[in-house]
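Researcher: Go.
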Amino acid sequence: MPSLIEILQVSVPAIILNAAPTATSMIQTSLLGNHASTAALAAFGAVATTAGTLLSVFNFLTDGVAAKVGWSVGQRDWASFAARVRMAITWY
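Model: Structure:
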């Protein structure tokens, strides 16, 4: 059973990676709000929302690849690991 330290070592970077896009979007929005026109701010909002929606449709692929690669590593099946990483790199 994993210890609390091991769980935190995995979960803290994941939390940071999940928070990073929101933080960068917030910073960009505040900069546009302070230094650009309202039209630029509206355009940024429309583009960011549209792009975020379209890209999130494909997030399941990332989750699936991570699960398969993690399973291969857990089983110490290095041939399967290498094949899955190669497939992930060439298919994206």
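Model: Residues 24 and 68 are 30 Å apart (CA to CA).
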